[in-house]
């Protein structure tokens, strides 16, 4: 991904996005950006630059609007209830396709994969999504190779992750891929992410 430009990661935010789908990857990537010698830039952006209200009520003010975000190396597309509106919006799907054409690495969290499927990005490709959304994923893209077990699926220029907290795992994988495994381990320790489920 050596393009001569500083590494830029954009996290797309929208009304009714799932909170942890946004802030989980943001925590990982922002911690990495603050400590990495690569000095990646991590920005949030909404379609129009205005604030958004996430699915459980958290309000976010993004850094930029879609028209101002500029070129990205990585797009992070979260899931949430709002994806059901966006996947039926032809103009938005055209935007996703345009981003696919100009962005080397497209990633999704949870039901963000449904929007990618509706835009045609997952045809014939392995992918994952929230455990409760695989039927919908197959309806949107019958040729998708659904992986119902993986926390995330890296298929080169497209990475999809399973539901909600899996976005943290996917973001750590991004750090490992874009810098190194050691860098990802440093981030993991820095944010004290070491899941040990109580039940």
Automatic annotation (TrEMBL):
Residues 8-176 form the DJ-1/PfpI domain. This is DJ-1/PfpI family protein. It comes from the Bacteria. The lineage of its organism: Bacteria, Bacillati, Actinomycetota, Actinomycetes, Micrococcales.
């Amino acid at each position: 991904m050596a393009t001569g430009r500083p590494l830029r990661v954009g996290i797309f935010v929208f009304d009714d996005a799932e909170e942890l789908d946004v802030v989980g990857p943001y925590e990982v990537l922002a911690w990495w950006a603050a400590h990495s010698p690569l000095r990646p830039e991590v920005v949030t952006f909404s379609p129009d630059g205005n604030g958004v209200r996430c699915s459980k009520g958290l309000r976010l003010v993004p850094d930029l609007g879609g028209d101002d975000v500029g070129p990205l190396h990585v797009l992070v597309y979260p899931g949430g209830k709002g994806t059901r509106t966006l996947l039926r919006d032809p103009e938005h799907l055209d935007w996703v396709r345009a981003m696919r054409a100009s962005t080397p690495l497209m990633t999704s969290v949870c039901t963000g994969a449904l929007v990618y499927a509706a835009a045609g990005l997952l045809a014939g490709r392995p992918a994952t999504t929230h455990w409760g959304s695989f039927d919908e994923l197959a309806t949107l893209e019958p040729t998708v190779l659904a992986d119902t077990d993986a926390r995330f699926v890296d298929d080169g220029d497209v990475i999809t992750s399973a539901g909600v907290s899996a976005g943290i795992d996917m973001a750590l994988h991004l750090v490992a891929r874009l810098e190194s495994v050691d860098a990802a381990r440093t981030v993991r320790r820095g944010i004290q992410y070491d899941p040990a489920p109580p039940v």
